[in-house]
Amino acid sequence: MTRGRRCWTGRACWRVLGLATIISLSWLNAERSLALEAMSAQESRIELTIRNSTFVRTKTMPIHAGVPMVLVVRNEDPVPHGFISPMFSGLQLTVEAGGIEVFGRGIDGVHIAPGQTAVIRLTPDRLGKMTFRCDLHPKVEGELYLLDMPVG
């Protein structure tokens, strides 16, 4: 009788441990999701598409100096384009394009192959106009404005 009781107790322990593991993993996954949502809520996101040799804004959010931002640039043209900006000068950047990630200071911009996307992460340090252009095609250019507007 004792032996059967131990076996049942052992199975019950494994069931309880299994259930505790599932609950713990679910809780950790929920915590991770909340953290990612909070990070993305703090980050401004701007999406641009290069289409017919023109920069087109497809998604914009307010950009503020000192707040991290993500700049997503998609190339829908059949030719490569550059995305170069004097605003990048001296800023810490992270650039992900074509499966490669580059980070640091002194990055002027990125070349984007046809059908590819570049993701640029930075924290703008000053207000004003942010100009950008394609260094391969001089007439392909655009601008964004970083403004601090009081909410009334």
Based on the model shown, name its key terms.
Immunoglobulin-like, alpha+beta, 2 domains, 152 residues, 1 helix, two-stranded antiparallel ribbon, 27% helix, 10 strands, six-stranded mixed sheet
Please characterize this protein's 3D structure.
With 152 residues, the chain is an alpha+beta fold. The chain folds into two domains: 1-42; 44-146, Immunoglobulin-like (Sandwich), CATH 2.60.40. Helix content is 27%, strand content 38%. It has one helix and ten strands, in the order αββββββββββ. The protein has one helix at 2-42, and strands spanning 44-51, 54-59, 69-75, 81-84, 93-97, 100-104, 109-112, 117-122, 128-133, 141-146. The strands form three sheets. Strands 2-1-3-8-5-6 form a six-stranded mixed beta sheet. β5 and β6 (100-104) form a beta hairpin. The longest helix is centred in the N-terminal third of the chain and has 41 residues, at 2-42. The termini are far apart. The relative contact order is 0.17. Residues 27-40 have low confidence and may be disordered.
Secondary-structure element sequence? Answer: HEEEEEEEEEE
Number of DSSP strands?
10
- Gyration radius over CA: 24 Å
Amino- and carboxy-terminal Cα gap? 77 Å
Give the biggest beta sheet. 6 strands, mixed
Number of helices: 1
Give the CATH H-level superfamily of the largest domain: Cupredoxins -  blue copper proteins
Strand content: 35-45%
Mean pLDDT score: 77
> Helicity level, as a percent range?
25-40%
